[in-house]
Amino acid sequence: MKKKNIAEGTAAEIRRADAGSRIGLRMTALLLSAALLAPAFLSCSDSEGSGGQGDSGIGETTASPVLSEPAASEVQPDPEPEPTAEPEQDAPSEPAAPEPEPVPDPEPAEETPAPEQAAEEAQADTASKSWSDPERYALYLGRAKEYAGILHDLYWDAGSELSSLTPGAGVPHLWPYTEQLGMVNGILAAMGADDPDRAFYVSWLDELVGGLRHYRIRRVKLVDGQSWNDPDNVLAAFGENDGTAHSYALYSSSRHDKKQDYLIVTPDAVYFDDNVWVAKELVAAYVNTGNEAYLNEAVNVVNWILGEGYENAGALAGIYWKWSAKFLFAGGNYSDSDHASLNACSTVSCAMVLAELCEAVPGTAYEDRAADWLAKADAILRFSDEAFRDRGTKCLYDKVFLKKGFEKSSDLKSQIQKTDNAQYAYNTGTYLTAGAVLFRLLSPADPDRAAEILSNALASAKGADKKFADKTVKAGQYSYPSHSWFTSFLLSGFSDLRPYGEDCGEYADHMRSALDYAWENNRASDGLVSPSWIKGWSRFTNNSPTSEDNPRQILYQSANVHCYAMLAEYYG
Fold first, then answer.
1. CB atoms within 10 A of CB 541
2. CA distance 315 to 228
3. Does residue 361 register a pLDDT over 60?
4. To the nearest 10°, the Cα dihedral for 342, 347, 349, 350?
5. What phi and psi values does residue 370 have, to the nearest 5 degrees?
6. What's the CA gap between 476 and 487, in Å, rounded?
7. Banded model confidence at residue 334, pLDDT cuts 50, 70, 90
8. DSSP-assigned beta bridge partners for residue 217
9. Residue 28 burial (CB < 10 Å; 0-12/13-18/19+)?
10. What is the Cα–Cα distance from 339 to 50, expressed in whole angstroms?
């Protein structure tokens, strides 16, 4: 693998540090500023936005699950001529029937902990990290490295810096591709700065970012009825930022195999949630390596998401799903490809990434922008509590469709036409992580709000363990939905909340047990592990090498590795 001169960070040490020590005087100042800015974000109306988003998954609800996004619009290899991009086609639903879910027990009323007590106990627990276990740390880091090496051999072409969808075949869309960065970022976060394998993973991460650039957009072609919210936008060069909110970078759902940073597409090929995942991994890549180009690119992507996808008219504070759909209202046809909607998968995840960005930028050129990001993250989480959070299960709904003319109203009920009540593990998982990070960030300046966020997140963690951990499949085990990428966010959320709630350690242990079972019982001869950890390979019926329904597709397999890496970091 080619080596790049990249400064190696100490992310594992940073993440293991006392939560309270992460926030210095400069962060306290920006938090105070954010407290003053927050009301403006909750009341400010943007009359130009008119949303559209959606997402679905496998075996988590009674809704018809969809494994992947539609295929990408036509990509032009040369600037001229530029034929009109073709609309994306809907991806096939998973052939298998949805998995049964345990019925959650009645949830007691949430209790808000005393802010000072919650913060003190959280810091003390983080400092001691009583659940650390050197043997388990070594075990799971070893598994993550071994498993990642298999994926490197089976899926990755270092020469072209491109990966296949399944071993040796197929082309992954942006979403599955990006989780490879998540896998490597997870391993780097878990390992120490002096780990002998660190240079290999830093180099591989750099190559993966190079491959990501084959999905990067050079120019956008708008059609009738579509427009930029920000007419001053500029599509920046990779890794460069002009210091303003107008510096944009965005990524298409499909790639240009021959060139980087070269795609010419219509908004029909661009999804806000895909770009949130890109931003998430670029922030993590910066934390792990110190490479400022990664941070610049992450900020460019966030600028675009907030500039074109953030809807805060009236009582709204959400992120659209598909760029082209934000301009569409199809009446009774509730499809997130042709009716404006705000989805949990793009909205709550954006709050999570904004919060993580706030923790990453102290001491950088972006430090003075953190107050704005923090205020928006808080506003988004408030909206999510109202629009997405189920009052019974405490898990999150999938999406809300907006009424035509919603921007003329200030009441949420009059702005929302319909709610999709499907509940997927990753939406709740991102909510848990967002809650944990926002609790840390807001505690110094607004302890009451921080305590409210933490209380909600802990209740949702309890609800998620009841809803998504099925004890009826195999005695002594907890079975999770077969979409391991969706499920991986629960492990992340439980781990992030563990310093603030002992029960979250129990929920994480349920998942650890399932992953152990998968490694020991559902690992194939090629070293890959079934995405359905307890039910195994028989849960899947589509083995086409070019299908995203194939259990060996890169999204599932990278997510499996990422889970073992997260366990290593958890016990480290």
1. 11
2. 22
3. yes
4. 130
5. -65, -35
6. 19
7. confident
8. 263
9. middle
10. 9
The per-residue pLDDT for range 211-260, each reduced to its tens digit, is 999 999 999 999 999 999 999 999 999 999 999 999 999 999 999 999 99
Between helix 272-289 and helix 292-304 the angle, nearest 10°, is 160
Which of 440, 544, 525, 539 is closest to 484 using CA atoms? 539
Q: How far is CA 333 from CA 54, 272, 340, 388, in A?
A: 13, 21, 11, 21
Instruction: Count the residues in the chain.
Output: 572
Q: Which two tokens stand for residue 366?
A: 């972006």
535 alpha carbon, distance to own chain's centre: 25
Q: Cα(215)–Cα(226) distance, rounded to whole angstroms?
A: 22
Pick the range with the lowest mean pLDDT from 17-26, 323-332, 412-421: 17-26
Q: What is the rounded distance in angstroms from the CA atom of residue 486 to the CA atom of residue 473?
A: 19
Residue 116: pLDDT over 60:
no
From 115, 66, 171, select the one nearest 444 (Cα to Cα): 115
Q: How far apart are CA 175 and CA 269, in angstroms?
A: 13
Buried b (16+ CB within 10 A) or exposed e, 403-438: beebbebeeeeebbbeebebbbbbbbbbbbbbbbbb
pLDDT band with cut points at 50, 70 and 90 for residue 164: very high
Do residues 376 and 354 make contact, with C-beta atoms less than 8 angstroms apart? yes
Taking each continuous run of H as one helix and of E as one strand, the counts in the chain are 16, 11
Rounded to whole angstroms, how far apart are CA atoms 331 and 81?
36
**Are 434 and 78 in contact, with CB atoms under 8 Å apart?**
no
Q: What secondary structure does DSSP assign to 310-321, as a single string?
A: EE-STT--EEBS
Closest by CA position to 315, among listed 335, 286, 342, 333: 342
Name residue 400's beta-bridge partners: 342, 419
Read off the tokens for 60: 């988590």
Closest CA to 51 of 354, 396, 423, 407: 407
Residues 453-467 have a mean pLDDT of 98
pLDDT tens digit sequence for 187-219: 999 999 999 999 999 999 999 999 999 999 999
Other CB atoms within 10 A of residue 390 CB: 17
Helix (H, G, I), strand (E, B) or coil at 79: coil
Q: How far is CA 252 from the centre of its chain?
A: 17
Q: 511 near 491, Cβ under 8 Å?
A: yes
Task: Give the contacts of 138 (CB within 8 A, at least 6 positions apart).
Answer: none
Consecutive H or E run containing 387: helix 370-387
Contact 73, 360 (CB under 8 A): no
**Banded model confidence at residue 121, pLDDT cuts 50, 70, 90:** low
pLDDT digits (tens, 9 = 90+) for 391-438: 999 999 999 999 999 999 999 999 999 999 999 999 999 999 999 999
Q: Tokens in use for 363?
A: 């001491």
- Asked if residue 50 has pLDDT above 90, the reply is no
Q: Give the list of residues 6+ apart from residue 82 with CB closer than 8 angstroms, or none.
A: 76, 221, 264
The pair of three-digit structure tokens given for residue 561, joined into one six-digit string: 């590795």
The position carrying tokens 């303003």 is 244
